[in-house]
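FAQ: What does a ligand-bound record look like?

Like this one, built around adenosine-5'-diphosphate:
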Amino acid sequence: METKALRGHKFPMSIPAPAAEKFAEQRRKNCFLSCGIPLRFFESEFSGYIVQDACSEYAKARGKVLEVCRAYAGRFPEHAALGRSMIFTGAPGTGKTMLACIIAKSVIERGMSAKYATVYRLVGEVKDTYGRSSETERDVFARYIAPDLLVLDEVGMQYGTDTERLALWEVMNGRYESMKPTILVSNLTAEEMSGYVGDRVIDRMRENGGAVLAFTWESFRSRGGNGNA
Ligand SMILES: Nc1ncnc2c1ncn2[C@@H]1O[C@H](COP(=O)(O)OP(=O)(O)O)[C@@H](O)[C@H]1O
Ligand SMILES: [Mg+2]
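The answer part, i.e. the structure of the complex:
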């Protein structure tokens, strides 16, 4: 019966455009979701990053940071081939996570792989393996080492426990050895980050011209920003 019905069925030559667009959009969102991109930044674009606002004294520095991020995303395959990483430092609300996520999305959209996670998440995943036989710490580290780009956010917000330091070292060293770029995002200064993740990690990230971008301006949130924070 079923075969007969299928035989008689005529598939349309093409899916109606609105349905196809909706499907493509859903696929794109699912992809961002599975890569850990926060929903808040699904629609964020470089073009929406405000350089000049009511208080323009920081516009130049913000413009420079935007330019570096845009160039990094635009030529990501070249940077990836060199394992060129970046560090974003600065006060909360200055747009670090936003720009890191826009870069990660652009990497995904060009067909390469990216992952976004906070250190809290990484450490949580490592701890979840304790007492389990189905997954080991190594499996977790491998998941963080595999993507073409890893954005590791909120570095230095935790307690600096041995588990955390070990996880950071394993992931960062694994990525370094595979020549895979990482964007580390933190409210700490570059010097404070060295103390936290270790000089060796920071030195390696600076190799091959890796940039440290200082987000030196005031919080976008305190300016009344776009109100969706
Ligand atoms: N220059 C900017 N232009 C537009 N929105 C911004 C800008 N900077 C920050 N925001 C917005 O402010 C909020 C906080 O930004 P976020 O990236 O989370 O800051 P951080 O990670 O530095 O704490 C987000 O909603 C973000 O979209
Ligand atoms: Mg942030």
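Follow-up question: can I read anything off the structure? Yes, for example: The longest helix spans residues 17-34.
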